[in-house]
């Protein structure tokens, strides 16, 4: 009979590091998402939590590439800003430190002239 050492519980040093959106950040993003869905602009979304970045992807239809990606990169906190809006072609549309300010660029797309 062989004895095995007990399995170690994860400690803060060996936990997998993962970037995620906080509840308040998700509330802001989902508020914008709800307005855009009501306007008929967006239909689906996906959330990815990766090692270096958290991504909220917005789709016009479920089976296509995202039209916008809202990214959170903590490594850029002291440089260009924690949040970025990236378009379908990979171009950075807006970057900044405040999520509400960064998301304003997408709010402008909701405003249309009514004739």
From TrEMBL:
Top-rank taxon: Bacteria
InterPro entries: DUF2794
Pfam families, alphabetized: DUF2794
Protein name: DUF2794 domain-containing protein
Taxonomic source organism: Halocynthiibacter halioticoli
């Amino acid at each position: 009979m062989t004895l095995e050492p007990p399995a170690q519980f994860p400690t803060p040093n060996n936990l997998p590091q993962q970037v995620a959106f906080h509840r308040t950040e998700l509330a802001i993003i989902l508020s914008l998402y709800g307005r855009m869905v009501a306007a008929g602009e967006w239909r689906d979304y996906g959330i990815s939590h990766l090692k270096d970045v958290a991504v909220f992807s917005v789709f016009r239809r479920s089976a296509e590439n995202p039209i916008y990606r809202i990214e959170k990169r903590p490594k850029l906190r002291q440089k260009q800003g924690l949040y970025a809006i990236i378009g379908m072609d990979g171009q950075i549309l807006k970057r900044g430190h405040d999520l509400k300010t960064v998301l304003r660029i997408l709010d402008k797309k909701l405003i249309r002239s009514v004739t």
